[in-house]
UniProtKB/TrEMBL annotation:
Protein name: Cytolysin Src-1-like protein
GO annotation terms (biological process): cytolysis in another organism; monoatomic cation transport; pore complex assembly
Classification via Pfam families: Anemone_cytotox (PF06369)
Localization (cell): Nematocyst; Target cell membrane
GO molecular function, one term: channel activity
Length: 180
């Protein structure tokens, strides 16, 4: 995105609700690849990068569908070596009824990024070592999941109905190098 920050990109988006996602790959060993998206409501405005190389950043943006009564809600997934990282985001139109929320999930096995994954992350999963969720309606929170292979950390801010999520993925401190 021509060197622009996610904040600059989102500022220029003409939509009443949007979610800008910046992913930083801090891994020394693995790239992020095979992105997949699911939009419960809204749509992809700037698609995720096909790969995010070691030491690089990627940006994607989801926006509310024009003239709809809904906001911008969905899931973005990437593969990190052989593990999936899924990020749920919700920037609803009616923020009196619904909270701005986000969640991280590292499933035990690769899972399609579809309505079933969205429903599972939004409604059913409970806090575990592989799933965490936060609502900005009850204060800001940093999300973090640590596995044997990786550390994933995310923050979310929402200003003037434009949410920004910053996700950082890196090697777990005990991850040995194993070339593919």
């Amino acid at each position: 995105m021509s060197g622009k920050s996610v904040e600059e990109i989102v500022k220029d988006i003409n939509s009443t609700r949007c979610v800008g996602i910046e992913i930083t790959n801090n891994s020394k060993h693995f790239k992020l690849s095979l992105p997949a998206t699911y939009a419960y409501c809204g749509r992809v405005n700037i698609p995720p990068d096909p790969t995010i190389e070691k030491g690089q950043k990627g940006v994607s943006v989801f926006i509310k569908t024009p003239l709809s009564a809904y906001g911008c809600v969905g899931v973005l997934s990437y593969m990190f070596d052989d593990q999936q990282i899924s990020l749920l985001f919700s920037n609803p139109l009616d923020q009196l009824k619904y909270n701005v929320e986000y969640a991280l999930y590292i499933p035990d096995q690769t899972t399609p990024t579809d309505e079933a994954l969205y429903n599972n992350m939004y409604y059913h999963l409970l806090e575990t070592k592989s799933f965490t969720k936060a609502s900005l309606g009850r204060g800001n929170a940093t999300l973090q999941i640590v596995t044997d292979q990786m550390e994933v950390t995310a923050t979310m801010a929402n200003e003037k109905s434009k949410a920004i999520i910053k996700l950082q993925v890196g090697d777990a401190s005990s991850t040995p190098f194993s070339p593919n």
